[in-house]
Each structure stands twice: as structure tokens, then as C-alpha cells.
Fold:
Amino acid sequence: MITLEAYFDYFILPILAISVILVFIRLFRGPAVVDRVVALDLIITIGIGIITVYSIRTNQKVFLDVAIILALIAFLGTVAFAYYIEKQKDD
Structure:
């Protein structure tokens, strides 16, 4: 029987690591600023997933608070960028 720790180590974390690498490629290649902002937002979301897996794995609930704060900051950054893009369209 597969334990939860083995599932994290051999399945979830490698998938998250591969996805971070692919999103970094999108972040550097662009082509538009919007693509880069979406890639940065996705990196933060994947980071939240990694923090959550680490929190469950080590049984430290403090990291879940860090993940929630990081999610709120990422959301506010996305809203600010959308507001910036909308302002540019008006001008």
C-alpha cells in the first residue's frame, strides 16, 4: 500500500517541479506582458501548492497561513495589473 508521504514524494512534488520549469519558460519567452504576468501568477499558485504539500508532509500548520497570505498577495497583484491594463485601454 502506498503511503501519503510516498505519494507526495514520487507523484505530486515531481509534477509541481515540472510545471514550475514549464511556467518559467513561458515567463522568460513572453511574448507579451500579459503572458508574463499570467505566468508569474501561475508560479505563485504552484508555490502555494508546494507550500501546502510541505505543510501537510511536516505537519506544521503555520505554513498554511503563509500560503493563504501569499494567495491574497497574488490576487491583489493580479487585480492591480488588470486595473492597469484597463486604464491603458481608456487612454
